Amino acid sequence: MNEISGNKWVYAFDEVDEAQEFMNGDWDGVRGLLGGKGANLGDMTRIGVPVPPGFTITTEACNAYLQAEGTFPDGMITQVSEKLRKVEETTEKSFGDPDSPLLVSCRSGAKFSMPGMMDTVLNIGMNDGVVKGLIGLTDDEHFVYDSYRRLVQMFGSVVLGVRDEPFEYVLEQYRDRRGVASDSDLTADDFRSITEEFKAIVERYAGRSFPDDPAEQLRLAIEAVFRSWNGKRAIDYRNAAGIPHDLGTAVNIQTMVFGNMGEDSATGVAMSRNATTGEPHLEGDYLTNAQGEDVVAGIRTTKPMDQLAEEMPDLHREFSEIAGRLEQHYREMQDMEFTIERGKLWILQTRNGKRTAQAAVRIAVDMTDEGLIARNDALMRVTPAQIDFFLHPSFAFEAKKEAKDEGRHLATGLNVSPGAAVGVVAFDADLAERWANEGKDVIMVRPETKPDDVHGMLACNGILTSRGGRTSHAALVARQFGKPAVVGAEELSIDLGERVLRVGDRVVREGEEISIDGTNGDVIVGVVATQTPDLENEWLKKLLEWADEVRDIGVWTNADYPDDARVARSYGAEGIGLTRTEHMFFDQSRLPIVQKMITATIPADRSDALEQLLPFQREDFAGLFRAMDGLPVTIRLIDPPLHEFLPSFEELTTDLTDLKIRIQSAGSLKEINDLLSKIEEEEHMLARVESLRETNPMLGLRGVRLGIVLPGLTKMQVRAIFEAACLVADEGVDVHPKIMIPLTAHVNELARQRTELEEEAKAVMAEKSIEVSYEFGTMIEIPRAALTADQIAEHAEFISFGTNDLTQMTFGISRDDAEKAFLVQYLEEGILDANPFATIDADGVGELMKIAVEKGRSTRHDLNAGICGEHGGDPDSIALCRRLGLDYVSCSPPRVPVARLAAAQAAIKEPLD
Amino acid sequence: MNEISGNKWVYAFDEVDEAQEFMNGDWDGVRGLLGGKGANLGDMTRIGVPVPPGFTITTEACNAYLQAEGTFPDGMITQVSEKLRKVEETTEKSFGDPDSPLLVSCRSGAKFSMPGMMDTVLNIGMNDGVVKGLIGLTDDEHFVYDSYRRLVQMFGSVVLGVRDEPFEYVLEQYRDRRGVASDSDLTADDFRSITEEFKAIVERYAGRSFPDDPAEQLRLAIEAVFRSWNGKRAIDYRNAAGIPHDLGTAVNIQTMVFGNMGEDSATGVAMSRNATTGEPHLEGDYLTNAQGEDVVAGIRTTKPMDQLAEEMPDLHREFSEIAGRLEQHYREMQDMEFTIERGKLWILQTRNGKRTAQAAVRIAVDMTDEGLIARNDALMRVTPAQIDFFLHPSFAFEAKKEAKDEGRHLATGLNVSPGAAVGVVAFDADLAERWANEGKDVIMVRPETKPDDVHGMLACNGILTSRGGRTSHAALVARQFGKPAVVGAEELSIDLGERVLRVGDRVVREGEEISIDGTNGDVIVGVVATQTPDLENEWLKKLLEWADEVRDIGVWTNADYPDDARVARSYGAEGIGLTRTEHMFFDQSRLPIVQKMITATIPADRSDALEQLLPFQREDFAGLFRAMDGLPVTIRLIDPPLHEFLPSFEELTTDLTDLKIRIQSAGSLKEINDLLSKIEEEEHMLARVESLRETNPMLGLRGVRLGIVLPGLTKMQVRAIFEAACLVADEGVDVHPKIMIPLTAHVNELARQRTELEEEAKAVMAEKSIEVSYEFGTMIEIPRAALTADQIAEHAEFISFGTNDLTQMTFGISRDDAEKAFLVQYLEEGILDANPFATIDADGVGELMKIAVEKGRSTRHDLNAGICGEHGGDPDSIALCRRLGLDYVSCSPPRVPVARLAAAQAAIKEPLD
To answer: How does DSSP assign A284-334, residue by residue?
Structure first.
């Protein structure tokens, strides 16, 4: 605590300059001394905004009071009296004077906002005499007694600690007697006798009478606010919000103003710009002859601000001018409370306004164009999550509320991929695809999804599962393709036999409509109306262009299909950082060939299958090259374990059990024979599945290991890539393939693959007589690869961090199992700050990445480095990648605009030397 | 090539000093110039060993010849003639003189031994005239013509390039005609006419006649040896062995001596010490009146060297003296070839002798005691593998050979745990245990083993599986307990139903005897006699004591049972580095309680089970503490995933299928009811197993994660440890528990466990009123833990590298799957130099360990660090751990002596600053 300040405990609102001087000009210090609200009121006063006069008792006074265990510091009360006198002079009213009574509010106001955590007393200064005077002045008994009974209750409960129940009981009895639902429908007489009963309650429960002396009212109110700093609620809040306990609260004493003093009075709330669209036009609601609560309560129909221009043109003009001044001052869109008391405009509060994503973007851009803020400010004002919003439809707020009110809310799951989706329920991928092809909107619903469900997931509008976590297959694929998804909705019981889903005795049949909200996890029966913001939004485009000028790290995309690539490019992707060639294998027309290749027992069969796959792959790659004309396309050779392409062990054993049971009761010889041959067939498949089964498939035969064990596969893929490259080059496409080896652990794996690859590439280019320049590189997704990146870089021209697997291995956590088993508990209990699959673990995985970049560039100084894991679209992870000196991040197409902004923000926050 | 040496191409054996001077004293240079054999012959000559006189043509001459494309360098032939003249003078014989003919051999001799890769010609100097003279001198026409026909054939094939077939065809005809099997049974006359026929063959196929002129014979032989340097065989050999191609070969011309010139002649091979036992006594075999080949061929019964002392006492004495001199000179046990020609002893060759492990140890120790070598030399002369041999019984060589000759060899598998074992076949763990308890020797035979087979594995003499690799469960457990084991013997087909194993149509039934050799993987039907070397061997003890004085890294042991601990301590273990508490859970008396704990659905049931486990665990720990009185005991809290304690998913589903099929044909209501209740029971277990199933269990819910998710378990284990510690402390035992947390990834996990642990430890010590000092630490087995060891060390007083898991995660290889899938191929194709599960991967895993030690000690400078993975017993890994500054390695008990030596060798090889 500052000793010198011992003398000055109270600052009038118009003494804010003095306070700032005392704090050596530091505005944050002023906020510490006067609290956020007090500083703000002073600030507004300073720039000439009409604020009801008042003064602030400092946080230091509060701390001194608390330390002295309930004694005001020397001189404080004297200073309060002086400042109060000044207010009386300004307002030409007098505290406790029935002829011209000054009423004040007494509110807490700490440095950091702690909404609802501390206390407020309004209407201080009323007593029986003042009430009479006020009635004379306002000719509004109802208003005066209403105010009086409020003061007694508020004072009783906040200052004297009387519980609310007895007050509420009295009100209830009056309402019953009058047969009304709302207190405001009680009469002036009612309020007068209620006030008397309230005084009796205070006397009885507090053991003292309600003080008639306004000065005593004020003194006790100040003490109550000071004490509320150490109230249980406030301490809990500070613990939760991480606010220090020794800051103390300031107390603001301010003249009460009333918007309900006749038709020349009004009260309202207004935004300096449209909070929904961002349009630069004053927006808000007001009521004439009303109190602030009335505007919020919605009992009376409010009027739009434009009407004020007609009703009180001067005041509207004054208000517009003030709103402009506040925007200029705070360089932000303002959310203002105002009251007009008998033709005089007062601003009670201003703060930065909340707004929709669209408004945030437009306001940031407009303000920049208006010269109000700099481009970098604009970029910092929009959150990456707001950009994300532009990419997904959302439910119209009213429509959703209505649906919930109608009891159509079915369940809540994890909100893993944002956006709203509506469609008919389909319980399997094939049906989802078929219905989608028929033009239906479909929600695919499964207990959980698997790689061979992907065609259905691609075709549908949204995905709903009853199992799985944020990193489940369904969640990953949904985010990848920007499909709204809700997973792990455990209330749902899905019966795939009966083709229904149930929650309790509610039943939704296949083909019936549901709505899912991937933004917050809601599942709703029937249709909820959606709205889609516009990615072509001119302000968004402008903002993202600015982001591109500022950012110093590339933004690429992960895309497996030409359509994906085109979308990503339209979103601003500067290249493809990852094409998962195996995703193409899951296509229904190819899977049988892939399975034939895998289950082949003689090499010739395998070669046949590979030869059949070649034209498919070539066409896939050609499509990608065409879509990315002029930009790099990174193609990863096959990665997943082969068993992923086959039916699951469990499925096969269940089928077999079934067949064996059925054969027991088979009726005819033919039936027995059919079943036997089916059993034989399934047993053959089971044998192959069993031979490929692995205890820990994540660490098994996949990635480059497959390429080495099955050299024909690598060869086919390389041939397809180069045949496609030659083909499109011939069409005039500017093609830049980058060939990426997955799961490298040892430099020798890379050396081997490179030799094979170069041979095949040369052969194809010779056949086609076309030279295509290409790069050779590897994923870094195994810790060893990161640790030996100096060796790796001997052969790799680029590296790309596969942070999903790198996180799994570095952290020793299996993505498929962890959430269910312990990760959620770890996050809940604070053992981990963040889910390492959402945000790169900087200390562990980030450290490995740092080692890899440094070692890799020690061998090859221009080693190109990027990231293509899920983290590539996460703002914190993007900032980390930039600090590590990566050249680009690659993320799913819908994350591209998000990443562009996040990258710009990182560059602004931490300029590199 | 050295220009100055241009003048001197030939060195007589007694000019070795001159050669060494020319090489500035560098003996390696002399070997380069004269070849290994030539340098050695010169060296022996120099120290006065009677070597048949001769000279060496330098490698430089060879290179000059090859470079000049077949022209001898200037002066070389003249120098050869001069040296030859000197030999004639010394031997008082003359080249080509029928009255006293000098015969010489002409052999290649490169710097590095390339056995059999280059050419040799013997008996040079014979022609028809010389032959006549020799017959007169030796009176042995048979010997002379035998030698002559050998010269013609050898010369014809080696020098003139005639293929062997025509020569062999002639010999065959003569043998047929005489009806004999061996050439030596042909008569002198036969050899004479054979010689004539051979000359005709030479004439016909080489297009020139066999040269009569001895000088021409010699010149052509020298050329042939020179040319043989670039023969295909030699080039291939050098490529394979990594020998440079520009070294060239030297040529040694040496006087022929003959042990078959009468009863005063002999030939033999002898070791300067006993190669089996190491006794310091001349050992060997010889034959009088015989040629060198006869000793090796085994046609005549050889005599032991002791008999030479009786037959030719002076020569025996001379030979003993020479053997001593050679040992002194080479400071190694020598393996010598000698010939006695008419009472004159000649040493033809000496080299370091091969020996058994026992002999190696004794000789190294004896030579040190004799002052011949230093202690460090002794330590370097014994390989860690030889120490290993002392710990395991082995099959007597003869007995095994006999068994193989009898066709009893059944199969060969992987030699994963050394030693020989004989016993009756038991096909399951329970039977193995029961029979072992009845005093039978048992070999447990399974397709593969699982954790709940451990009781059988402990009880049996040896383990045989038909599946699995070097790092399979069977292999790991076998090595841990020093049980001989052969795994992955894929020829075996094991029928657990019929209780037989089959190879083709061979059948071994349960209860029949087999023998397995874990040292080389052999599986043999019936009994093979074994022999057990003695670990109490006085020389071994002495050597290991010396090792302890030299080594600068501790050797601890991994032990789970008091018996293990005692054995390890007797082997020299200085502490327990790892106790796997879960191994105790697999005991048959405890497994049901453990399963109850896991399948408990209400907390009270779980607590009950934990309470029942407590006394067991306490007794386990007390036993360990007693066995290790005064030494540290590191106890790791429970590590494996819980499903390991339950029946497998596959087992349960198979059982259930079976039950469901049986119920179809059930006869009575009772039977149906029994089956139904069994199905219900199994389905309950299956549900729990399914809920615990993980896609990648290695990265799942285990280690510290279990401790956090099931806090009662940690608490029980900690209580058991401290109750045990207090108990034995009360008995006067000096107890040093170290409590180790497994699978830590994040410092917060450690912090959490530490708090819980300290609370419980304090509670127990307060209850018992005993203070036990203990340490708290963690395994480092997840890459992230290594990367954040600075944070980890805030809470850990010690760290221990779990290099098995660390290798799995750093390398991204699942130990359970890798060998089958690709690791073997990687090793075969040289993608990896070594199996990373056998020897720590220095570049990857080692780098992480380095980071961990450095970071850990940056926080806590005295952080105690060790290793407790399988690698702790591997010499290369021990050397790495020492370089990284670890305090100790911990290995399975049988590896302790091996580790002691390996650690000493590392300290000798790389002295630290």
So the answer is: EEEEES--HHHHHHTSSPPEEHHHHHHHSHHHHHHHHHHHHHHHHHHSS-E
DSSP A100-117: SEE-EEEEEEESS--TTS
Is there a contact between A689 and A652 (Cβ–Cβ < 8 Å)?
yes
Q: In this predicted model, what pLDDT tens digit does every residue of A9-54 receive, in sequence order?
A: 999 999 999 999 999 999 999 999 999 999 999 999 999 999 999 9
Helices in B572-602 by DSSP H: which ranges?
581-585, 591-599
ipTM of the complex: 0.80
Q: Render pLDDT for B667-690 as a digit per residue (tens, 0 to 9).
A: 788 888 888 888 888 888 888 888
What DSSP character marks residue B696? S
Burial (CB < 10 A; 0-12, 13-18, 19+), residue A806, is: buried
- CA-nearest residue of chain A to B665? A664
Rounded mean pLDDT of B15-33? 94
Interface test with chain A among B650, B696, B710, B754, by most A beta carbons within 10 Å: B696
Residue closest to A325 by CA, chosen among A637, A570, A45: A45
Give the strand pairing for A864-867 and A798-801.
Answer: parallel
**CA distance linking residue B586 with residue B593, whole number of Å:** 10
Q: What's the rounded Cα separation, in Å, for the pair B787 and B808?
A: 16
Strand (E) or helix (H) holding B335: strand B334-341
More confident residue, B468 or B548: B548
> pLDDT tens digits, residue range B547-561?
999 999 999 999 999
Q: DSSP letter at A7?
A: G
Within 8 A by CB and 6+ apart from B734, the residues are B629, B630
CA distance A819 to chain B (A): 10
pTM of the entire predicted model: 0.81
Q: Quote the pLDDT of residue B471.
A: 61
Collect all residues of chain A within an 8 Å Cβ-Cβ radius of residue B789. Answer: none
Phi, psi angle pair for A335, to nearest 5°: -115, 110
pLDDT tens digits, residue range B890-912?
999 989 999 999 999 999 999 88
3 state SS of B550: helix
Q: Which two tokens mark A454?
A: 């992907």
Tokens 């560059």 sit at which residue? A907
pLDDT exceeds 90 at position B656:
no
B341 has pLDDT over 50: yes
What pairing do the DSSP bridges indicate for beta strands A394-395 and A530-531? Answer: antiparallel
Q: Which of A685-694, B80-89, B292-301, B829-838 has the lowest mean pLDDT?
A: B292-301
3-class secondary structure, A485: strand
A830 and B661: CB-CB below 8 Å?
no
- Residue B822 to residue A752, Cβ atoms within 8 A: no
The reply to whether residue B812 touches residue A805, judged by beta carbons under 8 angstroms, is yes
Q: At what angle do helices B747-768 and B711-730 cross, to 10 degrees?
A: 40
Quick check: helix, strand or coil at residue A508? strand
pLDDT number for residue A2: 41
Q: Are A553 and A881 within 8 A, CB to CB?
A: yes
Nearest to B696 among A664, A698, A848 (CB): A698
Q: Give the whole-angstrom CA distance, residue B741 versus residue B703.
A: 7
Q: What is the CA radius of gyration of chain B?
A: 35
Decide if A753 contacts A715 (C-beta within 8 A).
no
Q: Answer whether B798's CB lies under 8 Å from B863's CB.
A: yes
Active site residue B736: no
Q: Helix H segments across B588-710?
A: 591-599, 603-627, 649-664, 669-692, 704-709
In the predicted structure, residue A853 carries a pLDDT above the cut 90? yes
Query: Which residue intervals of B179-260 are DSSP H helices?
Result: 188-206, 214-228, 232-241
CA distance to partner chain A, nearest, from residue B787 (Å): 6
